[in-house]
Amino acid sequence: MKKLIRSISLVALFAAATTAGAMAQTVARADSSKVYGHHHRGGEGFASLKSTLTPDQKAMLKQNREKQKAAHEAFKASLTADQKAIMQDKSLQGKDKMGKFKASLTADQQKLMAANMETRKADRKAFMATLTDAQKAQLKTAFRNHRGGKEFAALKATLTPDQKAILKQNHEKQKAAHEAFKATLTADQKAILQDKSLHGKDKMEKLKGLLTADQQKMMADNKEARKADRKTFVATLSDAQKAQLKETFKNGRHGQGVVTHRGDVQKS
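Above: the chain sequence. Below: its structure as tokens.
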């Protein structure tokens, strides 16, 4: 429960932006890649899960992948020269690029993105419904373990004492923010978090619907504080460290006990 609450207080507000950003970059994130592990570091756990899939489950994954590939191509075909130029503009990074790109989308493109997102959500839900309890447990373990931390561990080794001190301070601040948010939860809100019939976005949406104005403000304040802390930390990185950080995220997310993209230290 602790990890789930932390994901709400520290991560939930990023979910919509992450989804929109991925779609805006026309990246088709097929559920099959999640299970097959083709695009993951340390995909042994996913390969092991793949061996347990039934022919029908494999066929469903293949169908989902083909649908998402078609959706990706359709969205890509709708892009104008100006929109492609925005995505290729190396002077724009991350949120700035996404913001400018999203502002350029037509009503039809926005509708296409929304439809694609709903289709992926429905496909993912349908596939998850076919998994046995054992497969669900295996998938959860695979996702917890697959995010190879070797590259982040290598980056961490290059950090100066001052940079490590900033990371430690950020971690302590975020831990305190998590505990403060957790302390505000009502019995009904805790019950939603413990409701095993709800998953992922459905659980988050139901919880967010019960948040008070003060809780919403706390989440917004925490987000702004993390953003400022992250900016401060990144400003201390050398060009070589920034390049290493960028390459690390390109190849795979971090594991436990390593530097995270939020400018804190991910603890096990």
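The first helix runs from residue 2 to 24.
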